[in-house]
Design goal:
Blueprint: H1 2-19, E1 22-25, H2 30-43, E2 47-53, H3 59-72, E3 75-80, H4 87-90, H5 96-114, E4 119-121, H6 135-142, H7 147-150, H8 155-164, H9 190-205, E5 211-216, E6 219-224, H10 235-247, E7 252-255
Parallel strand pairs: 1-2, 1-4, 2-3, 6-7
Antiparallel strand pairs: 5-6
Length: 273
């Protein structure tokens, strides 16, 4: 396995060197951080990180992104995005992510041209092909490259190398924008994003690591990693969560017994690809 990862790593570095200069669509997650680090190591000052900021992107993720670019030593451009102004986004159809990524990647392409950078790259990895990700279609249409996908890196392999590179977020829990907390067809608003965001912030403060709070009108459905689930059986913990979530406007608070897993809201969408 080590030999395979090393081969992929060398291939990734070769891909990046061949690009010459890149703008990295940077979220602050494990994948885009690893990509940014390798790009900076190979291309130095010919790299720019761009982070799009909106109501769907929590403040703690934004702070992480700023901290990481500082640690790596790369230029960081912060740009507001306006997906909530787009009906195709806030109506929350199955292709919501397509319209979001189309806007973001369009901004990235323009900024890459402004800064005279040859390519825009994102952190899509090889395992992402197994989920329903219409944003990948937008990337192809606009000409965005995904070096981690091209080098066939999986998430676990990225974490292994991120740890070797001493990246502080090598074991950071997976994260998706807050719009993914809503069933398709539920209109996304600033108020609802804040409601769900505050619930997740509360769980984070309580020490939970991998979780999602899914919105189902008056019901908050909590998904949590199975290893963390026993903590919910403590009466005091349950009472604190119930009290806070009801203060934020939910009537019923439920725990999903299947636990957290990536792309759970997409499970009914894969057949529609």
């Amino acid at each position: 396995m080590v030999d395979i990862i090393d081969e992929k790593f060398e291939r990734l570095k070769e891909i990046i060197r061949d690009m010459g200069s890149v703008l990295v669509a940077f979220s602050g997650g494990v994948d885009s951080t690893f990509l940014l680090k390798v790009a900076h190591d190979e291309l130095r000052d010919k790299v720019l990180a761009l982070t799009g900021v909106s109501a769907t992107y929590p403040e703690h993720e934004f702070e992480d992104a700023k901290k990481l670019t500082s640690e790596i030593g790369v230029r960081h451009l912060i740009v507001p995005t306006n997906e909530l102004d787009m009906p195709d986004f806030y109506k929350n159809t199955r292709r919501r992510c397509y319209y979001c990524k189309k806007e973001l990647f369009g901004i990235c392409k323009k900024k890459a041209k402004d800064f005279q950078l040859d390519w825009v790259v994102d952190g899509t990895n090889y395992a992402d092909r197994e989920d329903f990700r219409p944003g990948m279609e937008a990337a192809r249409e606009i000409g965005i490259r995904s070096p981690l996908f091209e080098a066939m890196f999986t998430k676990d392999e990225i974490r292994i190398l991120s740890r070797k590179l001493h990246l502080s977020i090598w074991d950071k829990p997976s994260f998706a924008c807050l719009s993914s907390r809503f069933p398709y067809g539920t209109k996304i608003t600033y108020e609802l994003l804040n409601k769900v965001g505050e619930c997740e912030k509360f769980l984070r403060v309580m020490g939970f690591k991998q979780f999602r709070v899914r919105y189902h009108k008056e019901i908050a459905r909590i998904e949590v990693d199975l290893q963390e689930m026993p903590r919910f059986y403590d009466k005091n913990t349950m009472l604190k969560i119930i009290t806070k979530f009801k203060e934020l406007g939910f009537t019923y608070i439920t725990l999903d017994l299947e636990g957290y897993r990536t792309g759970k809201m997409n499970e009914g969408s894969k057949k529609d690809r």
